[in-house]
Amino acid sequence: MVPLPKRKLSKGRRDRRRAHDALKAANLVQCSNCGELRLPHTVCPNCGYYQGREVISMEKEAKK
Q1: Residues 6+ apart with CB under 8 A from 37
Q2: Structure confidence at residue 63 (pLDDT)
Q3: Per the CB 3.0–4.6 Å rule, which of 15, 18, 27, 46 could disulfide with 36?
Q4: What are the residue ranges spanned by the domains of the chain?
């Protein structure tokens, strides 16, 4: 036998349980080199810099 709820869940209780499931906007920060918005702790997809150093040379990437 499958257990079933004894009472109907109220809309308020149901919605409180689902409240944290909503999608949250991404936390974007400005690149220190070019000022473009990027995700924190990642290389800037626009200029290839991370923490003030060039990690990916974008000229080589553009030629491919």
Answers
A1: 28, 29, 30, 31
A2: 58
A3: 46
A4: 25-57
Token reading at 59:
């000229």
**What's the chain's length in residues?**
64
Residues 3-60 have pLDDT tens digits of: 999 999 999 999 998 888 777 888 999 999 899 999 999 999 989 999 988 888 877 5
CA distances from 33 to 20, 40, 50, 54 (A): 35, 14, 9, 9
Greater model confidence, 63 or 54: 54
End-to-end CA distance of the chain: 61
C-alpha span between 34 and 17 (Å, rounded): 42
Tell me whether residue 44 is exposed, middle or buried, using C-beta atoms within 10 angstroms of its C-beta: 0 to 12, 13 to 18, 19 or more. buried
